[in-house]
Amino acid sequence: MSINATLFVQAIVFLILVWFTMKFVWPPIAKALDERAQNIAEGLAAADRAKSDLVAANQRVEKELAETRNATATRLADAERRAQAIIEEAKARASEEGSKIVAAAHAEAEQQSVRAREALREQVAVLAVKGAEQILQKEVDANVHADLLARLKTEL
């Protein structure tokens, strides 16, 4: 065979190969490439959505943290005010109890003072009667004696 005929047969075989490749091989490859490009595009879009969702979630978290901090600060302030109120109430009760104790002590001291005065009057009356008895060296009538003691008590 001549080189021209060989070249012509090779060109026909090459054209058949090109046609076969374009008809049966190329469409699945192109389809696979298109699908892969679409999957990559979807993945990038999903990544962008996830990124924006992450930013939004971070903003929500920051907002909730701020709200929680504010609520905690409010609760702490309320607790401090309540503690101060309880302390003030306890101080008031303690002061009141102290005043009652002091008043009771004053009353007890006054009662003891009155009892001591009465006892002293009794002793002075007895001493006065004994002194008068010794001065007079005579017996005094019991009724007169009781009257004298009563008068002495009232004078003292």
Can you give a write-up of this model?
This protein is mainly alpha-helical. The protein has one domain. The protein contains 2 helices and no strands. The chain has helices spanning 3-136, 142-155. Helix 1 (3-136) packs across helix 2 (142-155). The longest helix is centred in the middle third of the chain and has 134 residues, at 3-136. It is rod-shaped. The termini are far apart.
Write the layout of secondary structure elements.
Layout: H1 3-136, H2 142-155
Helix pairs in contact: 1-2
Summed up, what is this model?
The protein has 156 residues and is an all-alpha fold. 95% of the residues lie in helices and 0% in strands. The chain has one domain.
Features:
156 residues, mainly alpha, 2 helices, coiled coil, proton-transporting ATP synthase activity, rotational mechanism
Number of strands: 0
**How many separate helices?**
2
The tally of structural domains comes to 1
Q: Would you tell me the overall average pLDDT?
A: 87
What series of H and E elements makes up the topology?
Answer: HH
Instruction: Show unreliable segments.
Output: none
For the largest beta-sheet, the strand count, sense and barrel status come to: none
Class by SSE composition: mainly alpha
For the terminal residues, how far apart are their CA atoms? 171 Å
Task: Estimate what percentage of residues fall within beta strands.
Answer: under 5%
Q: What general outline do the C-alpha atoms trace?
A: rod-shaped
Q: Over the alpha carbons, how many angstroms does the gyration radius reach?
A: 61 Å
Q: Helix amount, in percent?
A: over 70%
